[in-house]
Amino acid sequence: MNKTVNPNELTSDDDYGPLYAARKKVYPQSISGTFRRIKWGLMAFCLGVYYLLPFVRWNRGLGAPSQAVLIDLPNSRFYFFFIELWPQEVYYFTGLLIVAAVALFLMNSVGGRIWCGYLCPQTVWTDLFYAVERLVEGDRRERMKKDKSSGPMRLERISEIVLKHSIWLLIAWWTGGAWVLYFNDAPTLVKELVTFQGPMIAYVWIGILTATTYVLAGFMREQVCTYMCPWPRIQAALTDEWALNVTYRYDRGEKRTSVKKAIELRAYGEHAGDCVDCYQCVAVCPTGIDIRNGPQLECIQCGLCIDACDNVMTKIGRPKRLIGYDNDINIQRRQEGKAPVYRIVRARTVAYSAIIAAVGGIMIYTLATRSLLDVNVLHDRNPVAVRLSDGSVRNAYTVRLLNKSGYDRVIAIDANGPANLTTHVVGIDSVTPDRPMIVIPRDSTSELRLLVTAPAESNPEKSVPVRFHVTDIGLGEVATATDNFVSP
Amino acid sequence: MTDHHGEFDSVTGKSTTGHEWDGIKELNTPLPRWWVISFYLTIVWAIGYWIVYPAWPLISGNTRGVMGYSSRADVAVELANLEKIRGDKMVALGAASLADIEKDPALLALARAKGKTVFGDNCAPCHGSGGAGAKGYPNLNDDDWLWGGTLDQIMQTIQFGARSGHAKAHEGQMLAFGKDGVLKGDEIVTVANYVRSLSGLPTRKDYDAAKGEKIFVDNCVACHGDGGKGNQEMGAPNLTDKIWLYGSDEATLIETIGNGRAGVMPAWEGRLDPATIKAMAVYVHSLGGGK
Fold first, then answer.
1. Which residues in chain B land under pLDDT 50?
2. What is the pLDDT of residues A313-328, one digit of tens each?
3. Predicted ipTM of the assembly
4. Alpha carbon of B192 to those of A187, A330, B204, B208: distances in Å?
5. Which domain holds residue B227?
6. Which of A232, B75, B159, B208 has its CB 3.0 to 4.6 Å from that of B269, i.e. a possible disulfide?
7. Whether residue B223 is found in the same domain as residue B274
8. CATH number, domain at B274?
């Protein structure tokens, strides 16, 4: 937001503008309209989900957490309603991140910075903090006046400021408080926190999140979007001539003139711009820019200037949407007298949708077909094989059994490879010596050392595959793993 | 880069910084002041580091910092703590009997972990890092034991060694029947073939089995026992099985019988503390061949 420099005013080196700019405080004016209503609705939804989700219960049976969404770090488990993920399944999060990133691209190529304008936490909380500010200190003009007034502060003003910051801190504290509830049983933790029995780390995180919310939404605000967030820069590379962006329709708006003059001009059959230079779009802008200067880095495309301009247009009896979701192609087409075209299905949007569908499909498929019983086998490497005194050959394997279900399992291990293999689990005397049977407790892993011996007559000459079948005795579920059986 | 005179850019309505690289000029986009202030604050913060932590190199040593912090001291403290934790556990290990260690999962895990580390430091040069052995150095994973494979026997072997010079060491060795003139060359060949036949290995077509048996009975059964089944009291290997410490081919057997064998296992008592030796015995026993 650099001031335009008139070249004639440049006299010395120092006149080429400052290298550091003081921040211009933004005082967004309250506004009502379609987009404001959408924003209120989405804010209520997003905050509602964030604050209340930890309290949603989900019955997983006795002994298992009953919280619908829970990140259980001490036990390395992630619960999401009917899904329970283990650390080794972290690729689901990778998939989720891919889907999220491409969804952001897709939003962008359809309707610009929808994320920034309506859904981003920075926008949602800043919007909420502005609402508090307005409620306590008044609307744009009053706030500007109060900030400008010099001299000693009156008690009324001081109490206003204290009240505003108190409400902000309360919201910020609640934000941090909700954050920690995702990591522990929410009702229990709330009880512990209010009785000061909670774990230290919970208080520390509440403190951190309170501080970030208070500072980012109360003070940093649009500076986060303009200077700290990389997305505006990436967004500039993702948009194209078809993407709908919040746009000032300069073809309709220019040349700016007054209401009276415009009526006169139109009476003579001359063109007059619809923009009456009322600066309402600037007054409501939460980033303090003038949308009429064209697409800008700072614009988060929240649509509030559309509401502001629509209100003015309605009042002066001109058609709405002088500012609206539009693109370069249609501005050009209108100037050429052609009807606007909107093309949502394009190579770009199809490609993004295809990626989302493919990644999402793979995730759903793997999630639906994933086994709750699993086995991993690791062959001993040193030594790979041992010859025993009777000429038989023994290979040792580290076997890791995973029982992801909510019940204990009795499983049997079979090794199939060279003829007449015998298997023995170190440290466990199975009642069935030739087919070791063991119990794996629910929701846990067991690591065993398995000794597999091939008698002298069936010693393989070289390495041959050996398959391990792990069978749940009760349910018949089978998990298999393949490794090699080697001779010394 | 040319001079530092900025100029007006009519397209953007901004001034340039006056910097120019290959004709590309840089617009002056001022940094936000809070950013600049934050930047200077990080520098101030860094100066704080100089004062609090060791920072500047001096001729000998460096500035110490007011907190007297040193990462080396941190390591020393952590190592001391580790030793303390280990100390308590190793005392428990030293107090338990070998059989009890194998029955207690916690002690067994500790013994195996400790044993594995100590094995790597002390035993691996001869027996290999996995205990797989080499020619002349027994494989500790198999079920063939020269001096016995029970926990107590393994412990004893580790403590005192074999032919190690320790008073309680395992003694007894393979005599040099050829070098000492007890057997003649052709007799050695004959008995070597007889020994091969004991474990089902092919023999020379022209060798005299009866003569071989006679030589064996006269010279070998004293240690290797009737039928060559071996004797763990004397460390005499079983000659009927499939495991050969030095090799089962005729040439190697002739060398063994002719020159004798007397591999040395050092005594570890005195070099390692009793609890550690116990841990090692448990570890070796758990490799898969323990009796």
1. 1-3
2. 999 999 999 999 999 8
3. 0.76
4. 81, 100, 10, 11
5. 185-259
6. B159
7. no
8. 1.10.760.10
